[in-house]
Design brief:
The protein is built from 23 helices and 7 strands. A 5-stranded antiparallel sheet has the order 3-4-5-7-6, covered by helices on one side. A two-stranded antiparallel ribbon has the order 1-2. The chain is of the alpha+beta class. Helices cover 62% and strands 8% of the residues. Helix 6 packs antiparallel against helix 16, helix 11 packs across helix 12 and helix 20 runs antiparallel to helix 21. The radius of gyration is 28 Å and the shape is elongated.
């Protein structure tokens, strides 16, 4: 069972190694260099996957598979174009060092990189792939003439990927990318677009990858870009570790920071070692996490088995040659798929948070800056050479702008807020909903949590009034951080008794002839149950001479 599941994950990871082929196409590498670069990168994927599964101080101890980092694609392609394959070594090692240095503190930097900022980064990362995707899938020449056969191959590849993803079974959806590649290769062969098959006769069955000679004269601007992107990628590692932890723990409540730190360390150490052999940086594979969810199998021993299989592929030149010979239009279709997926995923991630005017302006301005640099590259012509790689990247400029504006707009924003009830002419219900939604937008809290908190606060107010004994809501206050949202209702009268939530449901027929007091008591019981169902934790008591009802929501 371990071997069979390992094979599925290894096949999916090898299919996703196509991102390394995208880099090779963007950098116009020769066939020999492409094969060498791909083999080294696949070996780096295996190494990082083993470290993640091994656990301890250098891994998450979870089944997390690594693939070529899609976000790094345009930047590694630029490094290779400018410095050759030798430039990949210091670039990947530097990305790994950055991950190692920040791995211990990334969990504590989460407020600096909320999903709204990450959404901008991921979206612009997708936009950065658009130009290469269209050039490769349409077979464009210097005069932008479209090659009809390239277009046919790309359409078939993309159609199969999309068709399997939308209408396929669970298994078909998981292997949609692989199925699209196979379909595209078959059509390419029929149209005479597969070349180099004669090389199999002279390619050995087994060989070690060729390590290129390092080139260390990368300019400071390029190095700064690599470090910044590596920092942003660690947030993806953070998310992957949390997802796997939740999948393994039915009683999961919050991120295991020790596990997250191990995941970041494995990513960093894996990239440092992978860089020494000429591999591009790797990142966690969300597709393989989806396969874990589908098979309900998350054993880290499957990860070790999959990693060993991936490593074997890297040592089989005929297999890497077969991957290298995948026609350009097929790679272009995969780029189109990746660009669209990242762009929409980023927008969805940004929109997952409650947005007020601050969030809207931050996202809008950051996207405008990023797209402006992409659409008007002449803007950086007069920039100092050392800054061109940073300022000339729409991805980097959008990310920097988003982080800076997020920090600027959050200045003066308190993570605590309070509003008195009944003093502004609003009804208590309107004031409660307005407070929760306004503060949720100000704090950029998750939309689903804000909606649940607003409903729970309304029911809590009903519970307070229906409980009698002179109770009446007097004020509402909230506290927020990236892990917790607390809504507290202050009220007059004695503190509430929450034990009635455990009482059996009232007899509806008996209530038909009951007096008002019995009906009020039954309604209070219903509100109490709803409050405790909607909130993750509920507590009542007294503080500074005032009674309160605290609703806690895990964020």
């Amino acid at each position: 069972m371990t071997l069979s599941l390992g094979v599925q994950h290894a096949v999916m990871a090898i299919a996703l190694s196509a991102y390394a082929l995208v880099v090779a196409k963007l950098a116009n590498l020769s066939l020999e260099d492409t094969q060498s670069f791909l083999a080294c990168t696949i070996l780096g994927m295996a190494l990082a996957t083993v470290l993640q599964a091994w656990g301890g101080k250098v891994g998450a101890g979870a089944f997390i598979v690594h693939i070529p980092d899609p976000i790094m694609v345009p930047f590694i392609a630029l490094v290779i174009t400018s410095y050759g394959l030798g430039g990949v070594l210091p670039a990947t090692v530097l990305a790994g060092c950055a991950a190692l240095l920040v791995g211990r503190v990334v969990p504590h930097l989460r407020p600096l990189f909320p999903p709204t900022v990450m959404g901008v980064v991921v979206t612009v990362g997708g936009f950065s792939l658009v130009r290469g995707a269209l050039e490769h899938s349409l077979g464009l020449d210097d005069k932008y003439h479209i090659d009809p056969l390239s277009l046919v191959i790309a359409l078939v590849t993309l159609s199969v990927i999309v068709g399997f993803s939308i209408w396929g079974t669970k298994a078909m959806k998981l292997f949609s990318l692989l199925a699209g590649m196979v379909a595209g290769i078959v059509v390419s062969a029929a149209l005479g677009y597969v070349h180099g098959l004669e090389r199999f006769a002279t390619t050995p069955v087994f060989a070690l990858p060729h390590v290129p000679t390092p080139v260390f004269n990368l300019d400071i601007g390029m190095l700064a870009v690599i470090v910044m992107v590596a920092l942003l990628v660690q947030l993806d590692t953070f998310a992957s570790v949390v997802i796997m932890d939740k999948m393994d723990d039915a009683d999961w409540h919050r991120a295991d920071m020790k596990m997250v730190s191990g995941g970041n360390t494995a990513n960093g150490l894996g990239n440092v070692i992978a860089g020494l052999i000429g591999a591009m940086p790797t990142a966690t594979s969300s597709a393989n996490i989806g396969l874990c969810h589908a098979t309900r199998s998350t054993s880290r021993y499957i990860g070790i088995a999959a990693a060993l299989m991936i490593a074997v592929v890297a040592l089989l030149p005929q297999v890497t040659l077969a991957l290298t010979l995948i026609p350009t239009p097929v790679i272009g279709a995969i780029e189109v798929y990746a660009a669209g997926f990242f762009a929409v995923s980023g927008l969805e991630l940004a929109a997952s948070r409650q947005l007020d005017s601050r969030g809207i302006f931050m996202i809008g301005i950051a996207l405008t800056v990023g797209l402006g640099v992409m659409l008007m590259p002449e803007l950086v012509e007069n920039v100092p050479e050392v800054m061109k790689h940073m300022v000339g990247s729409g991805f980097v400029m959008a990310g920097v702008t988003a982080v800076a504006l997020n920090l600027l707009f959050r200045l003066g924003t308190s993570m605590r807020a309070r509003r008195e009830l009944g003093e502004e002419g609003q009804s208590t219900s309107e004031a409660i909903v307005d407070f929760v939604e306004a503060q949720g937008g100000l704090w950029a809290a998750r939309r689903d949590v804000v909606r649940r908190a607003a409903l729970a606060a309304l029911e809590a107010a009903e519970f307070i009034v229906a409980s009698g004994e002179g109770r009446r809501p007097t004020a509402i206050q909230g506290r927020f951080d990236e892990f917790n949202l607390d809504i507290e209702l202050l009220h007059s009268g004695p503190p509430l008794v929450l034990g009635r939530a455990l009482a059996p449901a009232p007899d509806i027929h008996a209530l038909l002839d009951a007096d008002d007091a019995a009906i009020d008591a039954a309604m209070a019981g219903v509100s109490s149950v709803l409050v405790q169902r909607l909130a993750d934790r509920v507590r009542s008591g007294t503080r500074d001479g005032s009674s309160y009802l605290l609703l806690h929501f895990d964020h």
